[in-house]
Amino acid sequence: MRKIKLISIPAIIFVFLFAPLRLDRVLFFLPNARASQEITENETWNTDRTITGEVLLRPGAQLTIKKGVTITFDKGFIRSDRGFLSIEGTVREPVKFKNIHEPSEDNFSAIILENESVAIFKNIEFSGGGFTFEGSVPLGKNPFFNRTLAQNSPIYLGAVDINDSYFECQKCEFKGNINAITIKNQSWQSSEVIVNRSSFEENTDLNVWYDNSKGELDFQYNWWNGNPDKIQGNINTSSYAIRKNFHDPVIIIPGIMGSWEKDGVWQIDPIFHTYDNLYAEFAANGYIPEEDLFTFPYEWRDSNVDSAKKLKEKIDAIKREIHWPKVDIVAHSMGGLLAREYIESNYYENDVDQLITIGTPHLGAPKDYVTWEAGEFLGFWRLTFKRIFTLEAFENGFFSVFQYIHERPISSVQELLPVYNYLYDAENNYALRESYPNNYPRNEFLENLNNEENLWPLEEVEFTKVVGKQDDSVSTISGYNVIRGGDFGLWEHGYPEYFDLLLLKKKGFRYSDGDQTVPLYSAESSNIPADYTIYLTSEHNALPTDAQKDILETLTGIRPNTEVNHGLIHDILFVAVYSPIDIQIESPSREKVGKNFETGEELNEIEGAYYSGFDTNTEFITIPNPQDGEYKIITQGTEEGGDYTIEVAKITENEEDPDNAKESSVTIEGNIQTDELKEAKINVKQDQVTYNPDITSPTITISSPEEKDYTNDNFLKIDYRVEDLESGVESQNWEIEKGGEKIDWQGENIDLSLEHLGSYVFKVLAKDKAGNLSKKEITFQIITNLEAIRNNLNHYYFDLGLIKKKIAYKYLSRKLKNLEKLFDLLEKIENSKLKPKPKQEAIEALKKIINADINQLTEQIDQRVPSWFDQNIADLLAESLSYLKIN
Hints:
Blueprint: H1 10-18, E1 35-39, E2 43-45, E3 49-57, E4 62-66, E5 70-81, E6 84-88, E7 95-99, E8 111-114, E9 118-122, E10 124-126, E11 131-133, H2 143-148, E12 155-157, E13 160-163, E14 166-170, E15 173-175, E16 179-184, E17 192-196, E18 199-201, E19 206-210, E20 217-218, E21 231-232, E22 235-236, E23 250-253, E24 259-262, E25 265-268, H3 276-284, E26 293-295, H4 304-322, E27 327-332, H5 334-343, E28 352-358, H6 369-374, H7 382-395, H8 401-407, H9 411-414, E29 423-425, E30 431-432, H10 444-449, E31 462-468, E32 476-483, E33 495-496, E34 509-512, H11 520-524, E35 532-536, H12 543-546, H13 548-556, E36 571-578, E37 581-586, E38 592-595, E39 602-604, E40 610-611, E41 619-624, E42 629-637, E43 642-652, E44 662-672, E45 677-685, E46 688-690, E47 699-704, E48 709-711, E49 715-717, E50 719-723, E51 729-738, E52 741-743, E53 749-751, E54 758-768, E55 773-783, H14 786-800, H15 806-830, H16 836-863, H17 871-884
Parallel strand pairs: 1-3, 2-4, 3-5, 4-6, 5-7, 5-8, 6-9, 7-10, 8-13, 9-14, 10-15, 13-16, 14-17, 15-18, 16-19, 19-21, 20-22, 23-26, 23-27, 27-28, 28-31, 29-32, 31-35, 48-55
Antiparallel strand pairs: 11-12, 24-25, 29-30, 32-33, 32-34, 36-41, 36-43, 37-38, 37-42, 38-39, 40-41, 42-45, 43-44, 45-46, 47-50, 49-53, 51-52, 51-54, 54-55
Helix pairs in contact: 4-5, 14-15, 14-17, 15-16, 16-17
């Protein structure tokens, strides 16, 4: 403990003779400690200064010390007697108090608050302050003074010494002091001491000394060098920080269309990935997801007033979960208006420490005018926005985007309208309409948000604006030259000249500096107070990536050495589905996104792709920066089945004209049955997408059977090929018919000895993945002769065992030989030179003999079933023999 002896001097004697004795005040009257400056009126310090002696803040006066100021004490201190001391440092530029000397009996530095003073400190650094007195003071022979100043316990003076006053300190650092904070005589009814989110380190004697005159004091959420020690008094040190470089949790809030709901859970910008790099940068610099790094995706179609209430719920949940009193907010575009709505609301709980808005249209964005007035869009993502809005409008029963915006309503679109004059009457010599809100679409939300009476809460947070200011001073739409409109409810307040004429369209626009979306005038909004404004030469959607180092430095005071930059999206493949189908897309590299038709779940193998899900009214897929090549689009019929439509668009950034992105699109239509699968192929090449619909049926080539006669002692090979070079073959099958009835043939090699004689039709049916059908038929005959029957006899007996008795085999073999002799004889007679009449009589007689023998043989075969023959074989033999009969 530092011990300093006081010396007897006339100044001390004078005080004790004419004033009530307060031992802690002895310290005020050391040599060179008389008031050298008195502040009797409000005063602001913006520059560094050195204090020698006492600076006395008189009752009712306010001293404000601004960010970045360094106060050096040279045997001096600041004392407030019923004054108001406001120290307004920031994380990047704290206010610093330091002692030029080592503390000694004639030198100390302190801020002393007494007699109902009020002090609010933010982001200060205090070193070399305070001291401790212990011992007795010899003041000559007067026994009164010797007795009164003989002390059994030390007297403490802190770098900040609080006596019967209100003191609040947030994000302050007390390092290298004798004593950091001392609190005495807290009897004033409004006196209170709150010190949160601050750090105490290397203070020699005490971090906090409190005489316990008024209950427990709030010293929560602080860093105590790993352990809350060097503390005397009833001090609440709970929920203290466990690491030195602690920070408030941060919430990233996206802008309009920067949130999407999937399976009941809101996600932050899974389509355009505007915040991926920024989020990763936070994670790379010590922030831990879902511990002190959060996102706030929300229903951007609703009013920001409603969304702000949900933001409060999010902040309350974070505070409860991690036991921390404040958060930082980083908000892009419209998200900044949402955050401001919360901070400026009557339910705000003073729980936002820093607010950083990125490209926020604090005064509105003229580009929004065409969306509100006619359901049109401008800018690089206009085509994507319009397709999504169109899809949603259709699925929700609205006949146009304009009707959807106004009748749903999508309140956020109206809340982005400018609250200043930006329309020029083309029919009045292009004069500016200087009458907002008259003759303008009105934005009462933003009017209220920017009302001067509502802005004061912003002064209580550390507020930084990140603004896009491009090198091109005419980069951003700032107004319109308009003529009378109003057809079908559109363009109520004026139609931009030539808006529907692509080549002349820009003649109706007016331009100024900005980020291609928000004019500089609106993003700067000089009438809305901020601690910092950071300018970047970036376009609107690139700002969160390009500003990441500045954002981290603003929040933590430390600038990262590296940054995360995985590249932005410059083009996108957008696939919209109009029921009744579910969809899957396969990329040229065979990665898939969409519905898994085998498992009924979802799959997403394409980096950055987004699938809305199939259990939704609005089904679509986006693929950022798609690779060139062939994409397969596979569809499955839902329970309803019927006609369906798929729209595919390749939207590409146009560097020469950012307001008009390039678009190439195709439409795929068809009819589908429940659970039926179909496939189409599109080709993506640079900024083009093409689709050549497959209307060609599969090609069928039949090699076997052929259109000819086959004797029934053969094996018939089934051999065919189906090809479809466009969409591919989805299914193929073959079948056999005889007499109009299907025959159940199995395998690819058919044993004709087991089949009946006659005419057969071989059919091949095929379907490609586009749903085209194809069919081909071949007719062939199965016949027999004596040789074939003899071969089958051997096959039945030796190979198949279907002739059961050897005697049967021998008997039939003899009979077949006899028949063979009779047929040979018949052939000789037919070829003989006999006279016609005897020749014909001999032939007829021989035919009768042959037919009689065949009839006798078939009867004998039938009589020997089943002892000699299998019934089926008996029938086939009888059929073959009968085939030999001569008419």
